[in-house]
Each structure stands twice: as C-alpha cells, then as structure tokens.
From TrEMBL:
<dbReference type="InterPro" id="IPR036291">
    <property type="entry name" value="NAD(P)-bd_dom_sf"/>
</dbReference>
<feature type="domain" description="NAD(P)-binding">
    <location>
        <begin position="8"/>
        <end position="155"/>
    </location>
</feature>
<protein>
    <recommendedName>
        <fullName>NAD(P)-binding domain-containing protein</fullName>
    </recommendedName>
</protein>
<dbReference type="InterPro" id="IPR016040">
    <property type="entry name" value="NAD(P)-bd_dom"/>
</dbReference>
<dbReference type="Pfam" id="PF13460">
    <property type="entry name" value="NAD_binding_10"/>
</dbReference>
C-alpha cells in the first residue's frame, strides 16, 4: 500500500489526481499540502497546512516514507508579475523536490510541466523558460523524475475559465481534438496518467502530450 504526497490538489489537474489516489485500493495514505484547510473528508486523506511552499525546513516529516509525489501547483501566465511567476513555477517545485529527495530518495516524483518547456532556458516566453528551468534543476537532484508536458488541457468538469483565450479554446475543443495527439488532453485523463506513472513508472522521463495519452492505453 502506497503513501502519496500531492501539492496543488485544489487545482484542476491536482483535484482529479487527489480523487484518483483516494479511490485507489493501492493507496493507503494521501497527504495534501495546502495553504488553507479544505472541506473534503476521507479516511485516507491528511491535509497539511503550508505557509511557505519554498521552505520545508520545519516540515521534513511530511516527506518521509513517500512512494509517489506529485507537484501540480501553478499559475496562469500573466496573472502575476514575472518574478512571482518564477517563484511559483521554479522555486516552489524545486523546494518540494529537494525535500522529497532528502527524505524519500526512492520515491517517484511527477511534475506538472507544460508543452514547450525550454530546457535551454533561453525562451522569451516566461512559461517555457521557467518550466524548462524547473525541469533542469529537478533533474539534477537524482530523483526518479517524470515531467508531464500536456498541450491544451480541456477541463473535464465545467469551470469558470481564467481568461478569454481559455474560453475560446474550450469552445473550439472539438476542432482542437482533430489536430492530433499532441494538441490536447482532458484534465481527468492527464491526472489518471500522472497517477499511474507515479505508482508504476514508465520508460520516459519527459512525457509530451502524445506520450501521456499512450500511458492511458498501456
């Protein structure tokens, strides 16, 4: 029976991931790192309040004996200043991975990255540059590391879209699907693939959209 750790369970993908973990008979305990307590109750679920997602120096016990860990914290480009976007995208993810490596070095770590992540870190697009930067720094830690790079993530559950671009993308989803396996993925399917890889691993450390879809068919 597995012990699972999730950061970002209040988000679209992280929420589906939490449901997958709680429903699985392979999982005994799920620890969800949150800023404020939620209203979800489940015998497997333990919420831990975190004030600073860049510092786990006083929370090492959270990361002990973890089998699979998932980092799904993120923010939409343009919602915050560039320096804050970097902190959330890079610093939070790396701090989480470092704490995991120090306390459960054999755990599998799954990062919700994104299509276009630039490992050269030269992109002029903040999203691509900082996602690539996070992947690079985490790769150096020696963890069993899987980075998921989905394309457009279609909300499996209706939501208020964060901006006009996402509203239009949702309307156009039937057409986007026709563009091929590297164009889109439903949020629930992405979560299922991440959950599966966290438990069982896969032969690729970087999973592009088409690779994520293949996991679901395996």
């Amino acid at each position: 029976m597995k012990k699972i750790l999730i950061a970002g369970a209040s988000g679209m993908v992280g929420g589906h991931l939490l449901e997958e973990a709680l429903a699985s008979d392979r999982v005994a305990k799920v620890i969800s790192l949150v800023r404020k307590a939620g209203d979800k109750r489940h015998p497997k679920l333990q919420e831990r309040l975190i004030e600073d997602f860049s510092d786990y120096s006083n929370s090492a016990e959270i990361f002990k004996d973890v089998d699979a860990a998932y980092f799904c914290i993120g923010v939409y480009t343009g919602k915050v200043p560039d320096d804050q976007f970097k902190v959330i995208t890079v610093d939070y993810a790396v701090a989480f991975a470092q704490a995991l490596q120090e306390n459960s070095p054999k755990a599998k770590f799954c990062l919700l990255s994104g299509q276009g992540a630039d490992r050269t870190e030269k992109s002029r697009m903040s999203f691509a540059k900082y996602k690539g930067m996070a992947e690079n720094q985490i790769s150096e830690l020696g963890l069993i590391f899987f980075s998921f790079r989905p394309a457009y993530i279609y909300p499996s559950v209706a939501r208020k879209e964060p901006n006009l671009m996402y509203t239009i993308s949702r309307w156009l989803y039937p057409l986007i699907k026709l563009l091929g396996k590297n164009a889109s993925i439903p949020s629930a399917d992405l979560a299922k693939a991440m959950f599966q890889v966290g438990l069982d691993g896969t032969d690729k450390s970087i999973l592009e959209n088409r690779d994520i879809l293949k996991v679901l068919k395996a």
